[in-house]
Write a structure and sequence with these properties.
By secondary structure, this protein is mainly alpha-helical. It is built from three helices and no strands. The chain has one domain (about 5-65).
C-alpha cells in the first residue's frame, strides 16, 4: 500500500460520511416526530457511525507507511 492509496482510503471514508450526514439528520428529525422515544434510539447509532466515518482513523498499514 502506498501513500496515495492511504490518502484515497481516508478521503473515501470522509466522503461517505459527508454524504450520509444529511440523510442521518433527516432520519433523526422524521424518526423523532413519528416515534419520539424509539426514534432517538434508532438515530444515535447512525450518528455514531457517521462520526466514525468522518473521523476516518488510519489503518495500521497506513500508520506504519506514513511514519
Amino acid at each position: 500500500m502506498n501513500q496515495l492509496k492511504c490518502a484515497a482510503e481516508k478521503l473515501s471514508l470522509r466522503t461517505l460520511g459527508l454524504i450520509l450526514l444529511p440523510f442521518v439528520a433527516f432520519f433523526t428529525i422524521v424518526a423523532n416526530v413519528v416515534l419520539p422515544f424509539l426514534g432517538l434510539f434508532l438515530a444515535i447509532p447512525l450518528f455514531i457511525l457517521n462520526g466514525v466515518l468522518l473521523a476516518a482513523p488510519k489503518s495500521k498499514t497506513c500508520q506504519l507507511l506514513l511514519s
